């Protein structure tokens, strides 16, 4: 039913958040953080022919998830390998096992196995509001990454190279500063306005 689907979607989202944090422990901002405080992070999962859209934002030690416009506060949660548990507002503890293969996420929860397909994340319209954010001027493929986090750069320094429509486009630092984060790797396909790197003074 809908409740089982909601639990599975939240478990999949928490598993994904933990995986992204583990892959990028030096990220300055916690998962879900936005300095535009009202903009939820968005995830979209597909189950068969239906799409489940989830918004989430960090609240206290947990997150508030919005599924179909209905908020579900999660006050505490834990991810240990494929085991995910979370406590909903009101004290209901939910448990699931989550494994992923490619873009498929398999969630075993309350006796049912659901196969969700995570849809590509939307270009992030709030990316430009991050201080020092450099975004993709057009859709393309990352062919060179010339800097790494912690590196000092001068204004105009080349940071990375995108290939779009058979032409190379160099993304340069707007101002002198330090590279705080690089969000892409060589070979990545990026959408216009995708956050590529952050350089701050």
How is this fold's topology laid out?
Layout: H1 2-23, E1 41-47, E2 50-59, E3 62-67, E4 70-80, E5 83-88, E6 93-101, E7 104-109, E8 112-118, E9 133-135, E10 140-145, E11 152-153, E12 158-164, E13 167-172, E14 177-182, E15 189-190, E16 195-200
Antiparallel strand pairs: 1-2, 1-8, 2-3, 3-4, 4-5, 5-6, 6-7, 7-8, 9-16, 10-12, 10-15, 11-14, 12-13, 14-16
User: On the 0-100 scale, what is the average pLDDT?
Assistant: 83
Q: Specify the oligomeric state.
A: single chain
**What is the alpha-carbon Rg in Å?**
19 Å
How big a fraction of the residues is strand? over 45%
Biggest sheet, spatial arrangement of strands = 1-2-3-4-5-6-7-8
Sequence of secondary-structure elements? HEEEEEEEEEEEEEEEE
The percent of residues in helical segments reads 10-25%
CATH topology of the largest domain: Glycoprotein, Type 4 Pilin
Q: Per the principal axes of the C-alpha atoms, what is the gross shape?
A: elongated
Number of strand elements? 16
User: Runs with pLDDT <50, length 5+?
Assistant: 33-38, 124-128
Helices, by number, come to 1
Number of spatially distinct domains: 2
Largest sheet: 8 strands, antiparallel, barrel
How far the N terminus sits from the C terminus, by CA atoms, comes to 51 Å
CATH architecture of the largest domain: 2-Layer Sandwich
From the helix content, strand content and strand pairing, which structural class follows?
mainly beta
CATH C-level name of the largest domain: Alpha Beta
What does this structure look like?
There is one protein chain. By secondary structure, this protein is mostly beta strands. It has two domains: 2-118, Glycoprotein, Type 4 Pilin (2-Layer Sandwich), CATH 3.30.700; 127-200, RNA polymerase II/Efflux pump adaptor protein, barrel-sandwich hybrid domain (OB fold (Dihydrolipoamide Acetyltransferase, E2P)). The chain has one helix and 16 strands. It has one helix at 2-23; strands at residues 41-47, 50-59, 62-67, 70-80, 83-88, 93-101, 104-109, 112-118, 133-135, 140-145, 152-153, 158-164, 167-172, 177-182, 189-190, 195-200. The strands form three sheets. Strands 1-2-3-4-5-6-7-8 form an eight-stranded antiparallel beta barrel. Strands 9-16-14-11 form a four-stranded antiparallel β-sheet, with no helix packed on it. A hairpin with a 2-residue loop joins strand 4 and strand 5 (83-88).
């Amino acid at each position: 039913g809908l409740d089982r689907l909601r639990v599975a979607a939240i478990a999949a989202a928490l598993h994904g958040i933990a995986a992204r944090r583990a892959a990028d422990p030096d990220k300055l901002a916690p998962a879900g953080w936005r300095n535009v405080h009202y903009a939820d992070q968005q995830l979209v999962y597909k189950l068969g022919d239906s799409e489940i859209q989830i918004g989430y934002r960090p609240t206290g030690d947990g997150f508030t998830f919005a599924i179909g416009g209905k908020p579900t506060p999660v006050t505490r949660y834990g991810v240990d390998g494929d085991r995910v548990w979370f406590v909903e507002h009101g004290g209901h503890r939910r448990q699931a096992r989550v494994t992923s293969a490619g873009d498929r996420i398999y969630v075993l929860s309350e006796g049912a196995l659901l196969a969700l397909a995570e849809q590509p994340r939307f270009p992030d319209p709030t990316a430009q509001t991050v201080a020092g954010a450099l975004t993709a001027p057009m859709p393309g493929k990352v062919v060179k990454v010339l800097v790494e986090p912690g590196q000092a750069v001068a204004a105009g320094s080349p940071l990375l190279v995108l290939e779009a429509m058979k032409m190379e486009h160099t993304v340069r630092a707007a101002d002198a500063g330090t590279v705080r984060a690089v969000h892409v790797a060589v070979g990545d396909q990026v959408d216009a306005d995708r956050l590529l790197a952050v350089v701050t003074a």
